[in-house]
Structures are given as C-alpha cells and as structure tokens.
Specification:
The structure holds two protein chains of two kinds. Chain A has helices at 2-22, 32-37, 41-44, 62-74, 82-86, 91-102. Chain A is an all-alpha fold. Chain A is built from six helices and no strands. Helix content of chain A is 58%, strand content 0%. The radius of gyration of chain A is 21 Å and the shape is globular. In chain B, helix 3 (42-54) packs parallel to helix 11 and helix 3 packs across helix 12 (403-425). Chain B is globular, with a radius of gyration of 23 Å. Chain B has helices at residues 6-21, 26-31, 42-54, 75-79, 93-99, 151-154, 163-174, 195-210, 228-238, 287-291, 332-351, 403-425, and strands at residues 34-38, 59-63, 69-70, 89-90, 102-104, 108-112, 117-120, 125-127, 130-133, 137-139, 180-184, 215-219, 243-246, 254-258, 263-266, 272-273, 276-279, 283-285, 301-302, 316-318, 323-324, 359-369, 372-383, 386-389, 395-396. The two termini of chain B are 36 Å apart. In chain B, a hairpin with a 4-residue loop joins strand 6 and strand 7 (117-120). Chain B is an alpha/beta fold. Classes of the chains: A mainly alpha, B alpha/beta. At the A-B interface, helix 1, helix 2, helix 3 and helix 5 of A face helix 2, helix 3, helix 11, strand 22 and strand 23 of B.
Amino acid sequence: MRQSCRALIMSAVGVASLLILTVPGQSAELTRGAMLSVSCAGCHGTDGNSPGSVPGIAGKSASFIESAMKEFRSGARDSTVMGRHAKGYTDEEIKLIAQYFANRK
Amino acid sequence: MSDFTRRDFIKLMSAAGAASAMGWPIVAQAARRRVVVVGGGFGGATCAKYIRAFDPRLKVTLIEQDTKFVTCPFSNAVLGGLRTIGSITHGYDKLRQNHGVKVIHDRATAIDPAARKVMLAGGKRLRYDRLVVSPGIDFRWGAIESYDEAASQTMPHAWKAGPQTSTLRKQLEQMRDGGVVIIAPPVNPFRCPPGPYERACMIAHYLKQAKPRSKILIYDAKDKFSKQPLFMQGWQKLYPGMIEWIKQSDGGAIERVDPKTRTVYPVFGKPQKGDVVNVIPPQHAGTIAHTAGLVNKDGWCPVNQRTFESAMHKDIHVIGDAAIASPLPKSGFAAGSEAKVCAAAIVASLRGETMPDPSYVNTCYSLVGPEYGISVAAVYRLKGNEIVKVKGAGGVSPKDATDMFRRDEARYAAGWYSSITADVWG
C-alpha cells in the first residue's frame, strides 16, 4: 500500500513538472492594455469585479466601456471622479482598456 | 537559455540535488524563479498577488510580521465612530489560497544583496532572484523633543493603524465635554498627505454629537496642506467654530512635547495643553530599508521610476511609502499602483522581455462627514526617467459641488475601500 502510494505520488510529481515545463501559456502576456488596465482595479476591483458601490466593469462590452470613457472625458456623461481620470487617456489607450475589461470575467 | 554556461549547469544540478533531497520535483524547482516580498501592506501584498497573476510559474514568498493588517485608510472613520477596527482588518488567507503566495509571518532583519538572501528574525534565510521591499514608514523618534515610543502611549500618533487607533479612540471617549484635542501633523513628505485633516473632520464628527463644547487645534508644521480649500469649506459647513488650524508661520510647528502634562511646545508662541494630543511625528522609510542600505541621506529610498529597482542595490525593488516616487503621493492607493508596475517589471525582467510603458494612478477619498466625501485623483506616465502627472487630467473635487455630489463621493469612498482592499488582500 505504501509502495503504491509512493509510486502514485512520484508519477503525479512527474506529470506536474512536465506540465510546468510544457505549458508556458499559463503565464499572461504583459500587454500595454494590461499595464493600463490593472491600474483601474484599485477602484473597480481586481479584473473589474467591484465588491462595493463602484460600478464593476468586468465583461462589459468594449463598445460600452469605450463610449462611456469618452463621454466622461468630454463631460457629456456626468461623473464625480471619472471625468478627472478619463482625461488621462488617449483614444487608443481607451480602446485597449475597453478590450481588456471586455475579456475579463 | 542561449547564454547557459557550464557554471550555470553545475549550479542548476546542485540546486536540483538539494531540491530533490527535500522531496520536490527536480525540474519544476529549477524552472521556478523565486521572488521574495518584504512587507504585507498595500504595496507588498499587491505586488505578491500581481506577480503571481502575471506569471503563476514564479514562486512568490511574502514576509509579514503580523498575521492581520489594519489599514490606515478608514482608520479615521474608526476614530469618528463610523467603523469598527474589525472592519478595517485584513488577513492573508486569500493570498495563500487564491493566489498561491507563500506567506511567512516573521520579521526581515537583514538583507545580503551580494548573496541575494533575506534573513528573518526566526532564523530562516531566504534566497531570492528578485526582492521587493515594501516596509512602509517608521517614525523619526526624537525629532520632536521628548516624543519617543513611550510618549506615543499617552500622546498616540495613530499613524500606523491598530492598537494606536484604539488608544486614540478610547482617549476621545474618555475626554470631558469642552476638552481640547490637539492634532500635530508633520512637514512633507509623510504618509497620507490629506490624512491629518480628514482626522480632524472625523474627530469633529464624534465630538459634535458627544462633546459639542470641545475644540480641535491643528498645530501644523506646514503653511498649506492637501485638499486645503475643500477641507476648510467642509469644516465651516459641518463643524463651524470647532476646528482651528494654526499654520507653521503662525507658530504651528512644535519642537517639544511633555507627555506627562500632554503639552505641546511650538517653536515660537505659547505652550498648549491638550486633553487628547495626537502627535504625527516626522517619518522616514521603514527600518529594514535603513538596515539594508536602501535609503538616501533623508531616509527615503531612491528607485528607478520605471521598475522601482533600488538605486543602491541591484535586483532589489522598493515600493510604497518608503520609495521616492513623487509626484505620486505616499498613499496606500499609490503603493498598490506602484506595486503593479513593479510586478510587471520583475516578471518582464525574469522572462527577458521588455515591459510595456507603465501607467500609474492615484485616487484618494477623504470623509469630511459620513455623507460628505471629497477626493483627489491623478494619472501619471513616465517621461524620460521621471514620473509626471498627465496634464489636464486629475485634480480635486469641485469647490462648488452640490450636497448630492458630496454624498455620492462619500458613498464611492466606501466602495473604493471595498475594492482596493479586495485588490490587495482578496
């Protein structure tokens, strides 16, 4: 029993190390979109999942996020703090952020 | 792997030997690079979590002496009676369970940059490929004469949240109606620039209900402060006549205290006795940064503004309040933002990649009253080798905002707290 247990553990270990070596896809690509977007998580929650009163943005459509950000920036959409933030990003950056959060769950 | 040398091969083999002796899978161990993070606050915990998020193949160990972390953000709300200490206390289980961070509750006592090792008080020695130091602040005891650690038991600083917060709250509860509360903020730079003035608001909120004849005197070592017009407008509106701000040039800077009589002695002008005295002493980077030779002559840590790598030692990064990253303020939120940039820099460096251009952000709310919030925000980028504010973005809440706007910001302040603490420890 102990013998077979050990054999099982050893083969599991073998499989695990194989996995670690052969699945580099586990690590995320460090994209510009990610670099910009992780800074939003402080208020909107990790990956845009907000646990409190700040609106969550995970999985919202890219077009919704993009237009909301542009409207915050121009003042067309009322806000308390988002207008001040949105002015810090270019059209291209807003698009990258919108795509990033559209792809979160 | 192209520059893999014979020496590397021998090193790898002996590491593998040691690893297999401990019962770990040889190949996996050799493939995993090791990052050690010292300090489990906003900077350190965020950095540990995001390194693992960016690359789960990396082994991340977080060293934090306490098993629970009490946040400075919202500790003023505890003083005001709006929150309990429990509601601002966070543990490390989720970092372990959800993010695979190894958390060791011990104190880092020394760093050997040449051997790339961290020494712990409990006797352990940890080897690292990259080290992150996020020690927060320590106090320059004695910078104000007679204000030392013992004096902080009777005249609490409450500038590291926890028992000090509870002591200050208890003193406020025990104070007579008509008593004098003194708050003495330090010169710049210090942790949380709007903090002392939010504190005045929250204490005033409590006194207004429980001890309405009392007064708050702010003995300030400065002539201006963060969000000043908004705070002063709020004081006037919610607590007329209760808060008096004595600026440096009017004799606000204190040079000495007497803990026995709870008296503060300004550089010029009359001594002032208080019933409750909150001295917020001058600060510098946390102790380990000094021990490890990571500080400049002012006691703060110079770092590369793109990677947060120390200017003093290779492969050691310093983030949070201890690091020099102005115009980013010394705030928990900024520490988290720096931590993510630092995490990306470390992951990119260990993979031999180039990190995309960083973006940094700060958002700080202050509560003037339970339904009266104000904020400051900024977005930052790297220009050359310096962090600069993006022009035209950021700023403080409008001075002429409606009551509803202030209410919304108080509500968002609570949401901000839920989100950031989940982003750090969740």
